[in-house]
Design a protein that fits this description.
The protein is an all-alpha fold. The chain is built from 5 helices and no strands. The longest helix has 20 residues. It has a single domain, classed as Recoverin, domain 1. α2 crosses α5 and α3 packs across α4. The site of one calcium ion (CA) has 7 residues, from loops.
Length: 94
């Protein structure tokens, strides 16, 4: 049963990642964008990194990095996780 517990955790983790990331058909691009703009490699997009994204893609939105971060940061920790970043890009792409 102990190995079942381990197996369940691994499956849950994989399913979680798939559910979170896999439903966006542009996830490969979003993932690549996240890695590109996560300059300090902390797996979070902070406001400085969001600003550089907006400078790189000036036609993306008129909103400031601060206001985009405030809207997209759904768990309120002040950073964009991979999932929050993907959701933001999906929204901007509409
Ligand atoms: Ca970062
Ligand atoms: Ca967040």
């Amino acid at each position: 049963m102990r190995s079942d517990t381990d197996g369940d955790w691994l499956v849950s983790r994989a399913e979680f990642d798939a559910a979170r990331l896999g439903r966006d058909p542009e996830i490969t691009d979003t993932d690549a964008a996240f890695d590109t703009f996560d300059v300090n490699r902390n797996q979070l997009i902070e406001v400085d990194e969001l600003e550089s994204l907006l400078r790189t893609c000036p036609g993306l939105t008129d909103e400031s990095a601060e206001s985009l971060l405030a809207v997209a940061d759904s768990d309120g920790d002040g950073y964009l996780s991979r999932g929050e970043f993907a959701a933001l890009l999906a929204r901007l792409a509409e």
